[in-house]
Design brief:
By secondary structure, the chain is of the alpha/beta class. It folds into three domains: about 10-200, 3-Layer(aba) Sandwich (Rossmann fold), CATH 3.40.50.880; about 210-400, HUPs (Rossmann fold, 3-Layer(aba) Sandwich); about 415-510, 2-Layer Sandwich (GMP Synthetase, Chain A, domain 3). About 30% of the residues lie in helices and about 25% in strands. It contains 14 helices and 20 strands. A nine-stranded mixed sheet has the order 2-1-3-4-11-10-9-6-7, with helices on both faces. Strands 14-13-12-15-16 form a five-stranded parallel sheet, with helices on both faces. Strand 10 and strand 11 form a beta hairpin. Helix 5 packs across helix 11 (about 380-390). The longest helix is centred in the middle third of the chain and has 22 residues, at about 305-325. The chain is globular, with a radius of gyration of 25 Å.
Length: about 525
Amino acid sequence: MTQDAHDRLLIIDFGSQVTQLIARRLRELNVYCEIHPFNKVDTAFLHAFAPKAVIFSGGPASVFADGAPMPPAGVFDLGVPILGICYGQQVMMHCLGGKVERGHGTAEFGRAYVTPTPTTHPILSGWFDTDDGAGGREQVWMSHGDHVSEIAPGFQVLGTSPNAPFAITANPERHFYAVQFHPEVHHTPKGAQLYENFVRLAGFKGDWTMGAYREEAIRKIREQVGDERVICGLSGGVDSSVAAVLIHEAIGDQLTCVFVDHGLLRLGEAEQVVTMFRDTYNIPLIHADESDLFLGALEGVSDPEVKRKTIGRLFIEVFEKHAKSIGGAKFLAQGTLYPDVIESVSFSGGPSVTIKSHHNVGGLPEKMGMKLVEPLRELFKDEVRALGRELGLPQSFIGRHPFPGPGLAIRCPGEITREKLDILRRADAVYIDQIRKHGLYDEIWQAFAAILPMKTVGVMGDGRTYDYALALRAVTSVDGMTADYYPFTHDFLGETATRIINEVQGVNRVFYDCTSKPPGTIELE
């Protein structure tokens, strides 16, 4: 559902771990953008997408490597502004007649400082201490081994760093810009200003709002669905709830929601979701208790990818059954988000690898005879929350922490058993209760307990125990693409661990996960 009513910016991905942050910076400026891997963008795609501007991401490769990622043929002839970042700068110079070299002591990793040259340009408006660029310096984040040793014809040097003599360059005539650092990361404090300058120079109106998205999404849902029936996989989380309300606004009673209880939900969650949704919205809802089906299929399974794919397959079977039960629905609606799509895609021969499969990404089996409706597929999580507010959803919906479709299956590393799930449910309930009692729930993006695939020796009541160890996880984030652990006090963690061990039989040890994303993911599997 490409947003063709708006100016669009194309991000060509060369495999950087932080490409998604570029999109976030642009979305914050109300600019619609999409990320596409370099090897999926050809001349036909460029003309069909018709970008108003292009950004080349960073990447781990070297322009000297065999099969090095290269921009698509014709991109420099589109006549639109282009911004190259890190590898994007190097490959731009390489293609346009400059030179890139390896080594020679010019590698930079981490914090660096860029100073301006006497040459000024609006791309750096508001960047240095003085508007004319004559003084000051700015902190940036570098991560490069190769470096540009000679800029391409027509380019000017706007900024330098100790190990990057061409840290900021521009070809004003062609509206090409290139930087050696990463303006998308928070270690480059004024990076957002650089993106704002770029999209302003490119002529973007900044008109991509949730109000506009709502209107366009409703129109496109109606065009796609016509007068056919739709079933929506409802989990009660933010994504599926927003998708359901949006689709219901578009097609009314043509929509039936299906809430699948797969036996992997949190304590009391099925009852809460069904009550909450039926009491708030007059949308037909099927409560499908399929716990025996899912838990039976997962018995003895420990590989996380197999878990996810098994759950995805069974969801399809259940939806297919209920599509028939309501007279033959032709469409299945899901709350698939952009981060789900990004993490699930592995481009053959491309820059990225599959981080993890998502049960709701990858299309439907042909035998189902159904098509997908995914009105949130281009949104990040915070944008979904904004859309929910636009639709008038109550805060109890919008403010819920994310809960994965595979549920507790991916919070139970190793083999899944009913005993472990029962322990996990009760421990998780205590943990979330603690967070709410301390007034921390709304400060945290996502919090949960996970039961670890090991038992440890303990002592309780002068007796030896041999019970499960539990990990607690809580993170702060904006969109789920990057995250940091929440800095609980030691008093909170001690109090929470004591409650869990005292109140949940089967646990004798509690850990707190202090891993950020990256290098970890938010969920354990």
